Amino acid sequence: MPAITEFANIAAPKIYSLHEVWRPEQGSPVFTVAGAYTSRSWTDWTSGFFIGLAILQFDLTGDKEFLDLGREKTIALMAPHVSHIGVHDHGFNNVSTYGNLRRLMLEGRIPFDQNELHFYEIALKMSGAVQAARYAKTNTGKGYIYSFNGPHSLFVDTIRSMRSLSLAHHLGHQLMGEGERHINLLGRALEHAETTASYSVYYGEGRDRYDVPGRVVHEAIFNTKDGQFRCPSTQQGYSPFTTWTRGAAWIILGYAEQLEFLRSREKEELGAFGGWEAIETLFLRVLNVTADYYIEGYTCQDGIPFWDNGAPGLVHLGDYRQSVSDPGNAYEPVDSSAAAITAQGLVRLGRYLVNNGNEDAGQTYLSAGLTIAQTIFSDPYLSSDPQHQGLLLHSIYHRPNGWDAIPEGQQIPCGESCMWGDYHAMELALLIKRMAEEDYYVFWE
After folding, report:
1. What does 214-279 look like in DSSP terms, one character per residue?
2. Exposed end of the chain (fewer CB within 10 Å): N or C?
3. Distances (CA, A) of 204 to 212, 214, 220, 256, 294
4. What is the largest CA-CA distance in the chain?
5. Where are the beta strands (DSSP E) in 30-130?
């Protein structure tokens, strides 16, 4: 808690000043160069993090100026993201803004206003339906929400956008298709989770020569004519046969959060989708194998991973798993944003297992998540320099494309921040604070 208090104190002036100087015509802030946030056009997937960061700062501290800032900018800027048919990022952009505001109102943290609540909920309903419409089917008869690359492409990132479908379903919404077809949003989210589990996560069953238990592939490619799986691929990792660690992070957090949500549903509702026991078994299989691989397979002792566990420069670092991370090394960058995302997933998974009869495993994952939190909320990862606009240092966006800044005197990217890293560090801080106060929070309530 002392570290989280310090984090909140450091964050307050940085969040406020960035909102003061940033203009919508610049796009959305994505990552820093020499400590200053810049934009990078690929897809606009960080707007919700930028605005949601202010909302969560209010949640963490009670400072109303950040609530006003987040609420005003959600109303002014987020509507295009609700109707955005071209991306897989609805869970990032819209649940981080409209979803957080709705949750705060239902928690009694902000004054209840029925019309304002309707406004948030109609946005979340539309967002979930628009995201669910971005659907392709495999030859198994089940499908997935395809990435911005097109209908052939399944990204691991998208598992966390399934909370947009889950939340819209929770609000009683459904997608209407051709011929007045009623499409169940929860069913579509579960299809996506099952397809991702089948093609994006490895279990040591000999699928290929690199089938290491817990390995995650960034992108799965399908033939759009017949739905057959063709090959693993990657956009941001080193290769299709290594693990891009932020992809693994999305898996751990995405499945853990959805597991919590599904546990809250009536078991009769899940009967149409194979039943609760089968769903829980599948989700825990994914989570156990990927969480164990993260802890034992490729992270440093303080819980920080390199950007990819097969990055070629790692050969020069020996068994880095036996030492704490060194973001200033000469060979390969670490990725603190992957650590922040994973930490929340491990904490949620650990709490879930403890609460459901698996104390030993649950405490292991919970302890791992808190160890990562202890690391990123301290030097050298906490950005205490008031002149640096970021909150969490040493993150990586797109190593293969060379988008990340390399400071003068360094050989690899380091010392910079990204908007998703800052946002997920804030989510992690809020989660731990709530747990310390015995006031756990989830995205749908």
Report:
1. T-B-SEEEE-TTT--EEEEE-SSSS-TTS-BHHHHHHHHHHHHHHHHHHHTS-TTGGGGGT-HHHH
2. N
3. 5, 8, 18, 21, 15
4. 62
5. 31-33, 36-38
pTM score, whole prediction: 0.98
CA distances from 220 to 133, 196, 198 (A): 19, 8, 10
Tell the residue number behind the tokens 């380091």, with chain if given: 414
φ/ψ of 119, rounded to 5, equals: -60, -50
Among the listed residues 256, 429, 238, 217, the one whose alpha carbon sits nearest the alpha carbon of residue 351: 256
Nearest to 285 by CA among 186, 204, 222, 221: 204
In percent, how much of the chain has pLDDT > 70? 100
Helix, strand, coil % over all residues of the chain, rounded to 5: 55, 10, 40
Tell whether the model's pLDDT for residue 232 goes beyond 90.
Answer: yes
What distance in Å separates the CA atoms of residue 324 and residue 205, rounded to the nearest whole number? 32
The strand pairing partners of 220, in sequence order, are: 154, 232
Q: At what angle do helices 336-355 and 276-297 cross, to 10 degrees?
A: 130
CA–CA dist 150, 224 (Å, integer): 10
List alpha helices for 271-403, DSSP H. Answer: 276-297, 336-355, 359-376
Q: State how far Cα 274 lies from the chain centre.
A: 26
pLDDT band at 398 (very low <50, low <70, confident <90, very high): very high
**Which are the contacts of 206, defined by CB distance < 8 A and separation ≥ 6?**
none
Query: What domains can be seen in the chain, in order of their start residue?
Result: 2-436 (1.50.10.10)
What is the pLDDT at residue 84?
97
318 three-state secondary structure: coil
How remote is the C-alpha of 62 from its chain's centroid?
Answer: 24
